[in-house]
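It would be a great kindness if you could assist me with a short task in structural biology. A protein sequence and the structure tokens that stand for its backbone fold form the material at issue. I should value your view on which stretches of the chain appear to form regular backbone elements. The record follows directly beneath this note.
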Amino acid sequence: MRKIPYAFGLVLLVSILAGNAIRAEDQAGTSSGRLTVTEENDLFTASGDKHYTQGMRVGYLFGSTPEDASKSCNWFSADLPFFESGTCKRKYDWTVLGQSMFTPKNLQAASPSPKDRPYGAWLYTGMSLLQESQHETHSTLENFEVDAGVVGPFALGNVTQNDFHQFIGVNPARGWQNQIHNEPGIVLTHERKWRFEAPVGGNYAFDAIPEVGATVGNIFTYAETGGMVRFGQNLKADYGPSRVRPSLSGTDWFDADQLDGKMGWYIFAGTQGRAVARNIFLDGNTFQSSPHVDKNPLVADFSAGVSVFWSDAVRVDFSGTLRTKEFTTQNSDDEFGGVNLVFRL
């Protein structure tokens, strides 16, 4: 019953944003950009409050591409193995603010078990350069992303979790004084997705979106591969819903020029496998001793969900994810749900 106020608040927020966005569409014919609010939380499942317990991200996809974006893409194409040359569309995506939180299973122990995941939080901002290229049989989307921020008490995980627990009437987590120490962080990511579509008539279609990528930094370092399959209408507008890294990676990319009618929706399912070289929330701090556990080098996510949107004005995504064990003493896989609210500004 304690989850009802939170769920009610989400529904109310969706209704307000949807109404405002649709009214804005009626009044303004063009968009200046799209704001995406992502919330991932084990609150949405029956798995309990543990491990990857919450991820929040606010992203802004610029409506027009600055000239510097084209120059940047051309430089990447010429000097690095990123971004295909030729005819393409390019966009900037700004991660205005992101926060991820991790906890052990037992939140009431002031001194958490050394065999359980340590407390930790990651507060960050970032920028992505996105490019879509059209080919005869498929399209591709490339994403080069830089995120920078801080882990440790400066990331405000203690404040965020315990203030929310107080709001919903749940006992506070008692072990945050044992969290990973303060450390600045930077993460660089490059991904490429391929989209293959099979129309079935009436603006309905299936598509498949395989992906590969790599992430390097003192917060996360891993290689990933995976893919997604979808069925619905107006699939060409994007490559899957936004997610909080690390995850089966969607992006904020949306191209309203690809819409055939204003209504779009799809159901999706996908998986991503990661070969993990570093995860600061398992390995501990880079330059000083801190709580840590022995990580599993191979981790997989299995996700499914539904997306519904009206032109580029408003959108809602729902997803559920099962994540395999991330450290050797973990007793079971993790589950969490996610909600995206997207609206045009």
User: Anything to note?
Assistant: The mean pLDDT is 87. The chain has one domain: 4-344.
